[in-house]
Structures are given as C-alpha cells and as structure tokens.
Write a structure and sequence with these properties.
The protein has about 290 residues and is mainly alpha-helical. It is built from 13 helices and five strands. The strands form two sheets. The chain has a three-stranded antiparallel beta sheet. Strands 4-5 form a two-stranded antiparallel ribbon. Helix 5 packs across helix 9. The longest helix is centred in the N-terminal third of the chain and has 18 residues. About 25% of the residues are buried.
Length: about 290
C-alpha cells in the first residue's frame, strides 16, 4: 500500500465511511491515476475536468456515476491532500431526475413467481416485502430474522443506522422453506467462492442478475427493472394501501420525509384524488 493510499484510507476511516464507499473511492482514485499514468497527487482540476469528459464520452457513464467519481476525487484532493478546490473548478455533473419504473402489484408477484429457483425467489420476495436496499439485502444475516416479534433487523444501513422492518407471515413461510433447503450459517443469502457456496455475503451483481432473469421470464418489458424497482414498488403499493408516510419513511430508512416522497411517483390512487381536489378548487375560483 502506497503512502497516499494509506493516507486516504485513514481519512475515510476517520470519518467512519462505509466499507462500500471506502473501496469505491480508493478504486476510483487508482483508476484516475492510471488513466494519466501519473501519481494522483501530481494531478489537479484540469485533469479532473478532462477525466469527467472521458467518463462521459468514452466510457459512456451516466451523470450520477460520473458524479460519484467526482465525489471520490474531490475527497482525495480536498480532504486527503487538503487542497481547497472550489466547487466551480471541479463541478458535479447535473443529473436528470427521472421518475422510477414502478411495477403494478400483479407484475411484482409475477416477477417473484418467475424466479428460477427457491434461492432467487426468497431474495426477491424479501426485497419486495421489506423495501430494503441492495447492500442491506446482501449483508442480511440469519440472526436478523426475528420470527417471535415478526421483525427483520437491518443492521448498519445507509447512514450507519439500524432499523426494524415488519416480517410478513408469507415471507416467513418462504424463508423457512428456503432455510431447510439452503441451511445458511451466518449470511442468510450466502455468496460463492470459485463457484462453490461460501459463508460470505452475496454480491450485488448476483442479486441484480436474479431480478433481471425473473423479469425476462415474467415477460415484463418495462425499462430498467432491477432491485431498486422492487423497493419503489414496495413504497408505492403501501402508499396506495393508505399506509402513513411517516411509518413508510421509517421502514425505508429515510431520514427526511421528503426523501420518501421523492422516491416514489404520485400513485394512481393519489393522482386521481389530487386531480379531483384540484378540479374542485378551480371550480370554486373560476367564474
């Protein structure tokens, strides 16, 4: 490990960044240095701007991914090397805000039922029944399933926060069938090493492939159906069922309520009610 890498690692650890962020930031700075064939501390804003253009034009990355690269490089130069680059010199790319793809309840059930095996079915049902994030799902442990209290403990989710989410009887039944078949030890959904099952977290890529394959088998042609799609579906369907947004906020692991409301589009039920109220308001105002 080079002195610069060690210095950046210590700065990340000192701020208690997650392991996922630490690994990602270190890899980004390493790739940045390799691109210019120079040590990263010999580079600066001019190279960062050129690298942003390269990420967009050559690697065809989207704005959010380029923004993540920019955040890692800004951390390295501003926090590790303590160079006070103003944001105007190293801007974050403007990312378009799109409404998430939302599955109907029928589509969500079809997707889960189209899973190729019990392993994939249990994973997809867990995401849809709890709304947990990919990383939270990958790190779920057997001991986190509390069948007595009918809760699932999500440990150290986004923002290093623990939370409990409800465990539905249907999900518990499926997880029991799955446990008798897989017999996981520590991690509920273990990954693989050299093609053999190992007691380590499953990768996000394996989870993504399970969802993509199930969507294809179910004949769902909507854009970008992935694990976040099931999380959005969970939130939308609960809102349509009349669940209090603040309870949903707690279940999703959002700190501000506004984040919860931004993560789901206006529901069909909510849209109809909103239009009816708007029309009634306009009827009272217009002559």
């Amino acid at each position: 490990m080079t002195q610069l890498r060690k210095q950046m690692l210590e700065e990340l650890q000192r701020r208690n960044y997650s392991q996922t962020t630490v690994k990602g930031y270190l890899k980004i700075v390493e790739s940045f240095a390799k691109h210019f064939h120079r040590a990263p501390d010999q580079l600066g804003p001019e190279q960062i701007r050129a690298y942003q253009v390269y990420l967009f034009t050559e690697r065809k990355l989207n704005a959010r991914t380029v923004g993540h690269h920019t955040a890692a490089l800004r951390f390295f130069f501003c926090k590790t090397l303590r160079r006070a680059y103003p944001i105007e010199e190293v801007p974050y790319p403007k990312a378009p805000r799109r409404l998430p793809t939302i599955l109907t309840q029928d589509e969500a059930i079809r997707l889960i039922d189209s899973a190729s095996n019990l392993f994939h079915r249990a994973m997809l049902m867990t995401v849809y029944s709890t709304g947990m994030r990919r990383a939270e799902m990958c790190n779920l442990k057997v001991q986190d399933i509390d069948s007595n209290r009918m809760l699932i403990r999500i440990r150290q989710g986004k923002g290093r926060r623990d939370r409990d989410v409800p465990l539905s009887p249907k999900l518990l039944e499926t997880l029991r069938q799955y446990w008798l078949w897989m017999r996981p030890k520590m991690y509920l959904f273990p990954g693989t090493v050299n093609g053999s099952r190992a007691d380590k977290p499953i990768t996000a890529k394996m989870l993504w492939e399970a969802c993509r394959e199930a969507a294809q088998r179910a004949g769902i042609t909507k854009r970008d159906v992935a694990i976040p799609t099931l999380r959005h579906a969970y939130a939308t369907h609960l809102l349509e069922a009349g669940v209090n947004p603040r309870l949903l906020q707690r279940s999703l692991g959002h700190t501000p309520l506004a984040t919860t409301m931004l993560s789901v589009p206006l529901t069909h039920t909510g849209q109809e009610e909103a239009y009816e109220r708007l029309n009634a308001l306009m009827h009272g105002l217009l002559p």
